[in-house]
Amino acid sequence: MAKPTRQSSGKPATIHDQKLVRGNGGELHQIAEGDSEILTTAQGGPVADDQNTLRIGQRGPSLIEDFHFREKIFHFDHERIPERVVHARGYGAHGFFETYESLAAYTRADIFQRAGEKTPAFVRFSTVAGSKGSFDLARDVRGFAVKFYTNEGNWDLVGNNIPVFFIQDAIKFPDVIHSVKPEPDRAFPQAQSAHDNFWDFISLTPESMHMVMWVMSDRAIPRSFRFMQGFGVHTFRLVNAKDESTFVKFIWKPKLGMQSVVWNEAVKINGADPDFHRRDLWNAIQSGDFPEWELNLQLFDQDFADSFDFDVLDPTKIIPEEILAPVPVGRLVLDRMPDNFFAETEQVAFMTQNVPPGVDFSNDPLLQGRNFSYLDTQLKRLGSPNFTHIPINAPKCPFHHFQQDGLMAMRNPVGRVNYQPNSFGEGPRESPQHGFRSFAEAEEGQKVRLRAESFADHYSQARQFFNSQTAPEQKHIAMALSFELSKVETTVIRERMVSHLLNIDEGLAETVADKLGMKQLPKPADAAVAPRDDLEPSPALSIIRNGPDSFAGRKVGVLVSPGADAALLKNLQAAIEKEGAVMEVIAPKVGGVEAADGSLIAAKHMIDGGPSVLFDAVALILSEEGAERLTGEAAARDFVADAFAHCKFIGFTSGAVPLLQKAGVDPEADEGMIGLDDPKAITGFIEGCRKLRLWSREMAVKL
Ligand code: HDD
């Protein structure tokens, strides 16, 4: 776009030529070498003074004639567009999808035809309930929406990090969302499910029980977008060139393994760094450590669907991986942050209806409803049916149609013919061969408003999920339910929830009831279908069982004091970086500290600004004198006490012992406490870190 510059305008000298700018008071200041372009209005008119409105006299009234002022304020007043009604807080990145092998046997989708083919992609991660400015570590589902810019149009796989949903029918969506959002009279709580309305709705909606187990699990407090799985949730179809259909479920698996935080940590992260997940993705991509996921398909035919325990059209059910193995078919790499958050991440419009030829819908009633909602909402948010003219939403393949005009039309076709068929041989025509053909599924039946009987079992998979977790994960679920229900003020809602839990796991129900101070257990909720206890646990459902095998992509926070051992720090840093992890130094002052050898150790954070909740493991490289001094600082004591309470591995020099003791941490408490005086111990520290957390520490504490 043409921008007026001094060179191109050839205008006589301005204040820029004199290397002067005006200050707020109108006074002129000298500016450094390197001139900039001349500021203009949106109409291109050069601006002489951007600091003072036009007024009569120095202290007189402002003039409406000041078109520059009016334009500037007018535009500012209109900067915001409505935030998404759900998934308002999100963060996106660009990347590509690389196909491993041709899937032509299953689908004619162009993206899956050629091994090694790279397709550009844009991904937006999000929380569901909170508004745009809410914190990242809410206990919530995470959105995992992928836009593939394929050669045959955009394909949006609009998924979550949880493979099931709260409701079975899209007509219930406004209800579940209203219930979780801030209560409408008081407008709180923000980004929390811990309140009466949510649990009231849930406790009256047995179909949500499976999802509730997932949302109360550690899946809802991920450590990083990079360490989450993603799911298309619904059963979709793949359709090949012979118009044969195969059912499919889509699963994204993170290359770096799964990892979550603990709730007490999440609460503190939200205060210390509300942008924790954003910053993490930004830092990883900017430093060249590109996050990667593998796309896995669960492929099955009608016979499998007919013989499976549950209805494959029911979005509150999964197909366990142990029953139907996922097949990796490609990888997604995120390697570039948007240049402009608003233009790309805020304006990107995902729509489940965007499928390329070769991918098709199933009759899942949630999916069918979504296919209406997403298009509709984009008009509300982006203000015009021309939202596909916004670069992030435009296809990257050639496209030709007769849609025209409308607000903010940016692509305006030329020529006479804007319809077809026409006699002039102009314009695009449909192609039965290349175009999208819906799978010709035979349908018949009466028009009814009925929930299928095959959707009626609401507890069996909830129980299976709970039984598939490790002991610490089960404990986290019990703690999460107790916390959430403790915030519910209406007793009958708490009791109703416990009555559902009794159908899932008695021990869980008893623990929660006890934490809620209930004198006696209610009766189990009436179940339309008795919960089954013959479903095998699915180890694939546990995060802890599916963690990483290295510490790559993680972060160690090292607390140093004056007199610290600089050589040890250097060795530690080398070992951490060799592992593919990152080290950050925390010191009493952000300027750093003088090491024992007189060198300066630079610090990234002061202790208040770098609490241990921001790190996956910590090390204390302290001189004894330094540690003694830190015993008086609450932030330093919290650094240590929190790291221990959150089951992190702690490496420490013997000088650090006074601080450990003052923080109530026994230096010999368990194998997670690793002395670093001997440089060889660094290897042991890194090996410990690979386990991410020492859960036995937490299990020693009774609920
Ligand atoms: Fe939805 C946004 C995922 C059910 C209606 N949804 C939205 C986003 C994700 C999901 C990741 C954010 C996209 C972005 O980053 O811009 N939604 C899901 C999943 C669901 C689901 C995995 C169940 C399996 N959604 C669902 C239903 C409805 C909607 C049943 C309505 C009938 N969802 C919307 C919406 C949103 C949206 C109102 C808000 C902003 C947007 O679409 O673009 O249309």
Automatic annotation (TrEMBL):
Cellular component GO terms, alphabetical: cytosol
Cross-referenced InterPro entries: Catalase, Catalase_AS, Catalase_clade2, Catalase_clade2_helical, Catalase_core, Catalase_haem_BS, Catalase_immune_responsive, Catalase_large_C
Keywords: Heme, Hydrogen peroxide, Iron, Metal-binding, Oxidoreductase, Peroxidase
Positions annotated as active site in the UniProt record: H87, N160
CDD domains on file: GATase1_catalase (cd03132)
Keyword match Nucleotide-binding: no
Reaction catalysed by this enzyme: 2 H2O2 = O2 + 2 H2O
Superkingdom of the source species: Bacteria
Molecular function GO labels: catalase activity; heme binding; metal ion binding
SMART domains, sorted: Catalase
GO BP term, example: hydrogen peroxide catabolic process
Binding positions for heme per the UniProt entry: R84, R124, F173, R370, Y374, R381
The UniProt record lists the keyword Heme: yes
Enzyme Commission identifier(s): 1.11.1.6
Cofactors (names): heme
Major enzyme class: oxidoreductase
Domain Catalase core: start-end pairs: 40-428
UniProt similarity note: Belongs to the catalase family. HPII subfamily.
Biological role stated in the UniProt entry: Decomposes hydrogen peroxide into water and oxygen; serves to protect cells from the toxic effects of hydrogen peroxide.
PANTHER family: CATALASE, CATALASE-B
The protein's name in its UniProt record: Catalase
